[in-house]
User: What shape does this take?
Amino acid sequence: MRIAELRNHPFLLLVLKDGESEGYFSPELVHKIKQQLVDMSLRIASDNLSIIYADQINKGCEIVLGITNLGLLDLCDNDADKAKEIIKTQGIVYCFRAGWAKYAQLKKISPSYFESISITTYALAISDTSDIRVLHASLMKEGYKSAKLLDVYKNIAASYCASTILVDNDEDVLLYELQRFLNTAMALLLIDSDRKMFTSSLYQEFNTYLISTDKDVLLEKIETCIVKLTGQLSVLTKSYLQEIALLDFSEFKNIIAQQIDVAIHIQEILELPITIANELHDDFEGGYDFHADDEDDLAYLMPDDR
Assistant: This one.
């Protein structure tokens, strides 16, 4: 983007201006290019924006400018002479399609992330000299992160999800649920279980261990269990989870360290089967009783005139 920075206009516009002033582009070609840019802008505005307002049509023009600029830069590698040759021999639509192909890469990497990126992100104002390739590279990087999150989520959920796996498109939700899965793995390791899901008896064992063990002993064992858990993960999964700090188990540790209603708070950060969750939160009369009043619970469900 060297000439763009020096002359305060996007690379594409400078190439078009230079090509016209130098006589490299014929008047007919210049007219054709302008008409094609207008047509593409109206199409973009019609398909992606509201064309009721003039500013939206202007935004369509900026999107076409940005996408076409991206394509041209990718094709010519910032070489102005090569750029003019490409425009003259291949046409401006060819450059736009090259840019659109770059934009569409986001969808191939992560469809959910692609849906979250507005096409207006690629809009380029007439005085904007920023390198749109840098913007695209940044979006691609975030797209790969999104795809990795989804991949890791599915992998961990396959082992620790206590119900049907329903993948949410909201990354915050995925991160929240992923931490619950990992917390559950940690809780099971604390009681030396090789199971991937809690049963009533295992949860009773965990609950007893939690409230009867000194917090310093618990915190020390958590560190040991982190080592064991990370050893069970692939290198890429481990690296990713460490990068986003989900293997720190900060919330888990804080609940234990504070020693305030530990058994109550810890259940809120675990992935539990619905049967256990129901008893923890309702159990008809309230409280988790480890099936101590199952007969009363069944009687509660029966009609009085049975």
